Amino acid sequence: MVGISDLRSNFKRWKMEHKSQIEDLQYSLHLWRRSPLSIVGSILVLSIIITAIFVPYIAPYDPIEQDIKKRLGPPSWDHPFGMDNLGRDILSRVIYGTRVTLMIALIVTAIGGSIGTLLGVVAGFLGGRVDEVLMRITDMFLAFPRLILALAFAAALGPSLNNMMIAIAIVDWPIYARLARGQALSIKREDYIEAARGIGASKWRIMFLHILPVCSSPIIVQLTLHMGTVILTAAALGFIGLGAQPPTPEWGVMVSDGRPYIMNQWWVSTFPGLAIMIAVLGFNLLGDGIRDILDPKLRR
Amino acid sequence: MTELLKVRDLRTNFYTYRGVVKALNGVDLTIDTEEFFGLAGETGCGKSVTALSIMRLIEEPGKIEGGKIIFNGRDLLKLSEDEMRRIRGKEISMIFQEPKTALNPVFKVNFQIAEAISEAYNLKTKEAVKKVEGVLKDVEMADPSKVAEQYPHELSGGMAQRVLIGMTLSAKPKLLIADEPTSSLDVSIQAQIMKLMNDLVKKLKISVLLITHDLGLIAENCNRVAIMYAGNVVECGDVRTIFKKPAHPYTIGLLAALDMSKERGNLLTIEGIVPDLVNPPPGCRFHPRCPSVMKICSVEKPRTLEISSGHSVACFLYDNGRRLDDG
Q1: CB distance A292 to A298 below 8 Å
Q2: What would the 3-class secondary structure string for chain A be?
Q3: Which pTM was predicted?
Q4: Rounded to 5, what percent of chain B is helix, strand, coil?
Q5: Which of A63, A292, A299, B113 suits B164 as a labelling partner, its CA being 20 to 30 A distant?
Q6: Could you give the C-alpha distances from B215 to B38, B186, B208, B237, B256, in angstroms and in order?
Q7: Separation between Cα atoms, residue B13 and residue B21, nearest integer Å
């Protein structure tokens, strides 16, 4: 039988063994606590994530259920955010919209981030012609205004939620590629990379096993910092009809739906707009916070 | 004793904005099996470049321009990059000057050693992890199971160097190149590490190319030694012979500067400075600083001649045929 004292001593030993990691975590926590903005950011992002997970339990109504009689009804106790032009509960739609928005942000950063990081590491490590070609391609992408380029891709691929995500990922990857390349360039001069070559590690092994993890932290920061922009781009594309298609409760589409009624029924556009603002603000603050916490100059 | 590594007329250049740095100007070396071979010389004389050239790890803007590196009967300079990769780590391994920067900061020790083992024996990393503690025990680490779970920044310099030695020797290479393995460690740790290297080398029957500017380290550990000056091996031979009867004027100067037995007073130095390798002096690269310089020295590069069994020198003082012409 395992007694409580056994558990306690096991825990103590675990604590001893992982002392440095625990201290590191405590220090991160300490830095986090000292920056109020990153606390606000974390709370906002966390509440968005929790909302997205528990959507069906939180949302009071079905987001696509129409009640034409209450069409464009003002905010009331039954419908705190009011009703839209098709008589749908705006609060429920905004809540369901968190799921769509979060999915867009995650998928786009996952696709763009991984493609960009891989190509960037390859370019930086191999150098020479590979580097030249890849970086000129990123130059081409970066030369265009990103929103316009995403718009063009989305239009070319045809308006749908998936195509919009692909379009944003396509214009997003060069940012990460640039960053990863710079990191790879500096890391490849480190002694441990030479040591790894000295024990016969192959190029690919060095690139993906040694360089990739070391350069991941600025990329993670960039990814979180960039999620706000991605959400904004997605909303913009949704607004002009190139993103999610009705009746998907996507915030950009909802803002667009309320456009004709903005003078008299302000709530149709305002609440989804506020949701966009809060989400973008949350991700930006969190990104800044993570950047500060991971900044080696601020750490010991 | 058979020849393990034979370097002939190795030339490595670096193409910099100032011009071509002729870092290696025809280096000759021969290392036998189970030999502890020392390579000594001042900073910037090309010791490390020689080591990196042997490993074929010279990077842009450097380039190996010519010569032969015969290792176990194969010319390493003629191998493809892939074949060379299989030699690195498995047959020739290298440890570096700064042990702490030669470990990847984001991985634990056990993973890094396991990686070296898995590369060498084609094992899965998981299986290789099981062998890590054995490796750490071999390098006489005080608390192997604890160290295995630590990150490089938690190790001291001496511990990190032990880890690196364990890592490189776990693959049982035939030749270990140690580039200033102890110069960043303090003296007592230095002695421990050198003893450990000596023990392991004897146990595993491998050869070592020890690169250092510390002649004391060479005198204590090596069988044979080569002295380098400005990209050339100027003298090579048995450690005892070289230290007792140095032949090349540079070696003589080097040892005189070291000699503690002389009465106190002015420290003996070699006049002049190390030449700029973009515009090296013609002929023998040492001639502007040489106390016994002759006319021919600035004209022609001296041949390497064996003046007694196993003791070779590249200097016109010992080249009788040439010396007569000089008259």
Answers
A1: yes
A2: CCCHHHHHHHHHHHHHHCHHHHHHHHHHHHHHHHCHHHHHHHHHHHHHHHHHHCHHHHCCCCCCCCCHHHCCCCCCCCCCCCECCCCCEHHHHHHHHHHHHHHHHHHHHHHHHHHHHHHHHHHHHHCHHHHHHHHHHHHHHHHCCHHHHHHHHHHHHCCCHHHHHHHHHHHHHHHHHHHHHHHHHHHCCCHHHHHHHHCCCCHHHHHHHHHHHHCHHHHHHHHHHHHHHHHHHHHHHHHCCCCCCCCCCCHHHHHHHCHHHCCCCCHHHHHHHHHHHHHHHHHHHHHHHHHHHHCCCCCC
A3: 0.74
A4: 40, 25, 35
A5: A299
A6: 9, 16, 16, 14, 12
A7: 6
Rounded to the nearest angstrom, the minimum Cα separation between B106 and chain A is 6
Nearest to B255 by CA among B2, B22, B40, B81: B40
Does any CB of chain A come closer than 8 Å to the CB of residue B116?
Answer: yes
Taking CB atoms and an 8 Å cutoff, what residues of chain B touch A210? Answer: 104
Greatest mean pLDDT among A16-30, B126-140, B224-238, B274-288 lies in: B224-238
Distance (Å, whole) CA A292 – CA B123 = 41
How far is it, in rounded angstroms, from Cα B130 to Cα B118?
11
A294 touches chain B (CB under 8 A): no
- Residues of chain A numbered 164-203 and touching chain B (CB < 8 Å): 190-192, 194-202
Judge: B60–A197 Cβ closer than 8 Å, yes or no. Answer: no
What's residue A167's pLDDT?
A: 93
Residue with tokens 């391994």: B93
The secondary element (H helix, E strand) that includes residue B233 is: strand B232-238
3-state DSSP assignment of residue B141: coil
A199–B168 C-beta distance less than 8 A: yes
Distance from CA of B5 to the nearest CA of A (A): 17
At A180-221, the pLDDT tens digits run 999 999 888 888 888 888 887 888 888 888 899 888 888 888
Domain boundaries, chain A: 85-294
> Within the 70-109 window of chain B, which residues sit less than 8 Å (CB to CB) from chain A?
85-90, 93-96, 98, 101-107
Coil, strand or helix at B38? strand
Query: What is the tens place of the pLDDT at every residue in B64-106?
Result: 988 889 998 889 888 888 888 888 888 898 888 888 888 888 8
The CATH architecture to which A85-294 belongs is Orthogonal Bundle (1.10)
Domains of chain B: 3-103+155-326 (3.40.50.300)
Say how far residue B127 (Cα) sits from the centre of its chain: 33
Rounded CA gap, A15 and A22, in Å? Answer: 8
Parallel, antiparallel or unpaired: strands B232-238 and B224-229: antiparallel
| Contact predicate B226/B38, CB 8 Å | yes
Instruction: Name the strands in the sheet holding B311-313, side by side, starting at the edge strand that comes first in the sequence.
Output: B92-95, B175-179, B207-212, B36-40, B224-229, B232-238, B311-313, B305-308
Count residue pairs from A and B with Cβ separation < 8 A. 68
